[in-house]
Design goal:
elongated, mainly alpha, three-stranded antiparallel beta sheet, 2 domains, 4% strand, single chain, 337 residues
Length: 337
């Protein structure tokens, strides 16, 4: 058992060095970050995009900053936060990226303009109304990331395979140890089994969360993390900026894509996005908390049972527990946010 524990330690060190160790390259400037489209920034930051209010709002503001749509606010002071979004580009002109075209088709289906209330209606349930386009958008962003040498395609393909093989081998080892322990060919120490199980689960989590970025991609992500910290307390209404000016601000688009909750964002489309914007993060945290709680609770129960049950029975309980936790870790930490 000690040999298996040491092998697992070596595997963990190998994973950390291969998938979590990146060379620090030249510093990426704020200007370089802002040169990227907002949803591409979101994709790099979170290794994905959420089919959500924020993703679409960020893209609308980006399109406004580029002049592809016009956001015209009502001149009536009583209704100064009401607006109309007007299409301002020929969608067949070739100027647009695929994900920009997808958003425009979603917004302006058989129309040349939409009102604020129509936009909010469309944003109420993007998971249902934007599902197909969202998948196409994500694929388009992945292709862009590969072209920009942000994603390491080899890592992206090999990580799921390595994890699958590791889980299968782990289960086989547990079963063989259980059989050999039951027929007294080997002597199994319950504490050593506990350490081994912990290592197995940790390894699966590390493989699930491992980065498939290139050095350039990982450094870009670090720069985006710092950029988010820099702008997360910025309020766009400072210096008496109006919404007419704010919706042309690329930094505002970036803040929305990075799920920063500002008064300007709430003003643009009321409060529809507040829950939706933080949903993915809260869901991920709750899932992780539940998983760890289950792990600790079952571990304590097994530890209690080990004092009363025959050793052979306890060994098999540990084995079944390890297999179940390995599968749970794979499902939990590999689930899309």
């Amino acid at each position: 058992m000690i040999i298996f524990i040491l092998i697992n330690i070596a595997i963990i060190i190998y994973i950390l060095f291969k998938y979590y160790n990146f060379e620090k390259t030249d510093e990426i400037t704020k200007e370089e970050i802002e040169s990227y489209d907002s949803i591409f920034i979101e994709y790099i930051k979170y290794k994905d995009i959420n089919n959500s209010f924020d993703t679409l709002i960020a893209e609308i503001v980006d399109l406004s900053a580029k002049g592809y749509v016009k956001i015209e606010y009502d001149q009536d002071v009583k209704d100064k936060y009401n607006y109309t979004i007007i299409l301002n580009v020929d969608e067949q002109s070739g100027k647009l990226t695929k994900y920009e075209t997808l958003v425009l088709n979603f917004l302006f289906y058989n129309k040349m303009e939409i009102t604020k209330s129509e936009l909010e209606q469309r944003l109420k349930n993007t998971y249902k109304t934007f599902g197909i386009q969202y998948k196409q958008m994500k694929q388009s962003l992945r292709e862009k990331a590969i072209k920009e040498k942000v994603i390491d395609v080899k890592k992206e393909k090999e990580l799921p395979k390595i994890k699958k093989v590791y889980i299968i081998i782990s289960i086989i080892i547990f079963i063989i140890m259980g059989i050999l322990g039951t027929i007294n060919i080997i002597n199994i120490n319950l504490y050593e089994i506990g350490i081994f199980i912990f290592e197995q689960i940790l390894t699966i989590i590390l493989l699930s969360q491992a980065s498939f970025y290139t050095n350039k991609g990982q450094n870009l992500k670090y720069a985006i993390d710092a950029y988010k910290i820099e702008i997360e307390n910025k309020e766009f209404f400072e210096n008496k900026n109006t919404m007419q000016e704010i919706v042309k601000d690329k930094e505002f688009a970036k803040s929305v894509a990075l799920h920063i909750n500002t008064l300007a964002k709430r003003t643009f489309a009321d409060n529809l996005g507040v829950v939706d914007a933080s949903y993915a993060g809260k869901k991920s945290a709750i899932i992780a908390f539940i998983f760890l709680s289950v792990l600790v609770t079952i571990g304590l129960i097994i530890a209690k049972l080990s004092a009363t049950l025959p050793k052979d029975v306890v060994v098999w309980i540990y084995i079944l527990f390890a297999i179940a936790m390995a599968v749970m870790a794979d499902i939990t930490f590999n689930k899309k946010k």
